[in-house]
């Protein structure tokens, strides 16, 4: 994710309008953030820890909704995706229709100011949305606090929060979510080697709400 996302010329709506047009033209669902393996990591963790298939799952910043499609294919039945971009929700609705997954709920929502009905979820997922908020030059620190507050409201006590980030290290994420959440697991992500040092370009963590 680049800081260009928050340049004056960048528009999430415009980006998803382009993806929507591409889907209508050639049936391409668009980019999968962090790649296919990021979805496999999430689904594998949920299955390994026997998270019930009827658990309520919220995908924060769902984009094209492909993660929800894969969860539905894995048997999960109570799925909701939100995005503040109406174009993203239009795209995810069309992909949902194509895949025949009518049980997936999709809504235009600003997660920093969630509606009252957005609550009581067993699992919340984030692939890149917290990253994008963190790059917003307009009071990024304040918006990160709003995000954590929203997460505390929509996720049930003892619910799981799975976050995938390319902008934050494990230690930084532990600090960001220190109030109200505890770390449960770190998921394996691709490693890189530079200058003789090994590191991770992506961080994937599982938190539990206290």
TrEMBL record:
Point out the gene that encodes the protein: Eef1akmt2
Q: Which InterPro entries match?
A: Efm4/METTL10, Methyltranfer_dom, SAM-dependent_MTases_sf
From the UniProt record, which GO molecular function terms apply? protein-lysine N-methyltransferase activity
Gene Ontology biological-process annotations = methylation
Q: What is this protein called?
A: EFMT2 methyltransferase
Q: Which residues form the Methyltransferase domain?
A: 56-184
Arranged from A to Z, the UniProt key words for this protein are: Cytoplasm, Methyltransferase, Nucleus, S-adenosyl-L-methionine, Transferase
Q: Which reaction does it catalyse?
A: L-lysyl-[protein] + 3 S-adenosyl-L-methionine = N(6),N(6),N(6)-trimethyl-L-lysyl-[protein] + 3 S-adenosyl-L-homocysteine + 3 H(+)
Q: Which organism is it from?
A: Malurus elegans (Red-winged fairywren)
Gene Ontology CC: cytoplasm
Q: Which SUPFAM superfamilies match?
A: S-adenosyl-L-methionine-dependent methyltransferases
């Amino acid at each position: 994710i680049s800081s260009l996302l928050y340049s004056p010329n960048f528009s999430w709506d415009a980006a998803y309008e382009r993806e929507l047009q591409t889907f209508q033209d050639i049936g391409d669902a668009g980019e999968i953030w962090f790649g296919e393996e990021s979805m496999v990591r999430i689904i594998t963790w949920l299955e390994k820890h026997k998270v019930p298939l009827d658990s309520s799952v919220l995908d924060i910043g769902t984009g094209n909704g492909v993660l929800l499609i894969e969860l539905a294919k894995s048997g999960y039945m109570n799925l909701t995706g939100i995005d503040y971009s109406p174009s993203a929700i239009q795209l995810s609705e069309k992909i949902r229709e194509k895949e025949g997954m009518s049980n997936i709920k999709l809504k235009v929502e600003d997660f920093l100011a969630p509606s009252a009905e957005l609550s009581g979820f067993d699992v919340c997922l984030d692939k890149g949305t917290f990253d994008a908020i963190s790059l917003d030059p307009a009071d990024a620190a304040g918006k990160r606090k709003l995000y954590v507050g929203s997460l505390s409201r929509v996720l049930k006590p003892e619910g799981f929060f799975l976050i995938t980030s390319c902008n934050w290290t494990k230690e930084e994420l532990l600090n960001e979510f220190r109030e109200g959440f505890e770390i449960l697991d770190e998921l394996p992500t691709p490693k890189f080697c530079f200058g003789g040092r090994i590191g991770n370009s992506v961080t994937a963590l599982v938190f539990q709400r206290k």
